[in-house]
């Protein structure tokens, strides 16, 4: 049997990183986590770290700001996956320098895990959210570091719990707001599943220097379709309030950041169609659900069942 790559995950105490570490262990990769000192003394994070350690992960102390700790960690692994938060994306520059220096990393997956930053059509509106991720892509490419960029679209825990209703914490039961005409499709994937697809790529030559896109069947719907699925589940028609593109843009402009952030992402996905307007194959990318049909993922309908 082919030897499984040793995987280093940075950000295992975070929302996605925790799932990445679990998936790496589940798929039998020797798994390492680079963890900041402060997390070991944090009540909840230290418990999570202990359970990862019990499951077989090797915990290494270090940080993206400490070059020596990065070099030391990189020398022990073949693959690096970074899952730091969007605001810290540029902190990966030192890591990229260290990866180049050690020269032994077979695959680097930088912290993206959202819409494709080279495909979004909302430049100037997103407070450099995507341009920072694109800057990291360019640096990785320039340095000739083998990579996979993971473009998973929305996490299921983001916007779907409210059925894409900013300000709500559960799906509406009386009236629902639909942005634009409601026919543009967006994509939601559960974090655990994003982690499974991501880990599947690390030893796969088909994903080398490619963008992996996730658009699983059953997880790609327009707002009208999402509302229809929910209405069928609660056996009730909701009152529809339509907010035009122009009105949404006015609301985005009038609301100071970050209060307008959800509306910006809704505009991008459900009005501009940034998650689905392009063909994956024609763009040179690879489709995760086609490459790994055996990954058993949660559909939107199943996710909504849990909210009934
Ligand atoms: N598509 C979507 O809907 C969606 C939603 C959310 C996030 N995302 C994307 O997913 C990625 C991960 O985001 P997240 O929300 O999972 O992140 P998160 O929960 O904020 O976790 C960040 C992790 O990075 C670690 N970290 C921070 N600074 C570090 C440093 N200097 N050195 C080492 N580790 C450091 C943190 O560790 P400590 O415990 O030490 O703080 C934590 O484990 C981002 O690219 C984000 O844009 C996408």
UniProtKB/TrEMBL annotation:
The keyword NADP applies. CDD domains: PCBER_SDR_a. One of its GO terms (molecular function) is oxidoreductase activity. It comes from the Eukaryota. InterPro entries: NAD(P)-bd_dom_sf, NmrA-like, NmrA-type/Isoflavone_red_sf, PCBER-like. One of its GO terms (biological process) is lignan biosynthetic process. Residues 3-304 form the NmrA-like domain. Keywords: NADP, Oxidoreductase. PANTHER family: PINORESINOL REDUCTASE-RELATED (PTHR43349), PINORESINOL-LARICIRESINOL REDUCTASE 3-RELATED (PTHR43349:SF34). This is Probable pinoresinol-lariciresinol reductase 3. It comes from Ziziphus jujuba. The gene is LOC107404306.
């Amino acid at each position: 049997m082919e030897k499984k790559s040793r995987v280093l995950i940075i950000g295992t105490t975070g929302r996605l990183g925790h799932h990445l570490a679990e998936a790496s262990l589940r798929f039998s990769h020797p798994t390492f986590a680079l963890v900041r000192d402060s997390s070991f003394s944090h009540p909840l994070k230290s418990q999570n770290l202990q359970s990862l350690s019990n499951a077989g992960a090797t915990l290494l102390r270090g940080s993206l700001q400490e070059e020596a700790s990065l070099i030391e960690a990189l020398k022990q692994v073949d693959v690096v996956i970074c899952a730091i938060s969007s605001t810290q994306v540029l902190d990966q520059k030192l890591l990229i320098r260290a990866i180049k220096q050690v020269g032994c990393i077979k695959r680097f997956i930088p912290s993206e895990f959202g819409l494709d930053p080279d495909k979004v059509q909302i430049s100037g509106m997103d407070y450099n959210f995507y341009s920072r991720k694109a800057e990291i892509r360019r640096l990785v490419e320039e340095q000739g570091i083998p990579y996979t960029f993971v473009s998973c679209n929305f996490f299921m825990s983001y916007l779907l719990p409210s059925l894409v209703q900013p300000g709500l914490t559960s799906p509406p039961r009386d009236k629902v707001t639909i942005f634009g005409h409601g026919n543009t499709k967006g994509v939601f994937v559960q974090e655990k599943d994003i982690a499974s697809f991501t880990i599947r790529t690390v030893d796969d030559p088909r994903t080398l220097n490619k963008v992996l896109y996730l658009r699983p069947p059953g997880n790609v719907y327009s707002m009208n379709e999402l509302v229809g699925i929910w209405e069928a589940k609660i056996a009730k028609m909701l009152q529809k309030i339509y907010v035009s593109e122009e009105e949404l843009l006015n609301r985005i402009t009038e609301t100071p950041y970050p209060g307008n952030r959800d509306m910006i992402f809704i505009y991008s996905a459900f009005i501009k169609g940034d998650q689905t307007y392009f063909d994956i194959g024609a763009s040179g990318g690879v489709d995760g659900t086609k490459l790994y049909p055996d990954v058993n993922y949660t559909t939107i309908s199943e996710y909504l069942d849990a909210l009934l």
